[in-house]
Amino acid sequence: MDGWAERPTQRHGTQLQLEDGLRRRGDAERTVYAEVPPRVEYALTDFGRSLAPVLAAMQSWGAAFKERMLARQGADASPERTQATDGD
Predict the structure, then answer these.
(1) What is the pLDDT along the chain (88 residues), one digit of tens a residue?
(2) Which one is the CATH code of 1-49: 3.30.750.200, 1.20.140.10, 1.10.8.60, 1.10.10.10?
(3) Considering the entire predicted model, what is its pTM?
(4) Can you list the positions of beta strands (E) in the chain?
């Protein structure tokens, strides 16, 4: 296994960069508790919570995009479309 579990993954590195950036900019705060096992909690600051409308709009857009793509996939697989392309 040559230590693969100890190596940070790309996802872990990205998560650390995101956490550090959010805290440095004041969007989030980190609380470390002196417990065993260790516990860390993150919370949005008032400024970070001001992103809620932006995130909600992005979520709404994402849901509409997903529906559009699923509808397009369904239309591509319809029997009429399949028959039209069978003669090609």
Answers:
(1) 444 454 556 666 667 777 777 788 888 888 999 999 999 888 889 988 998 999 999 999 999 999 999 999 988 776 665 555 555 5
(2) 1.10.10.10
(3) 0.49
(4) 28-33, 39-44
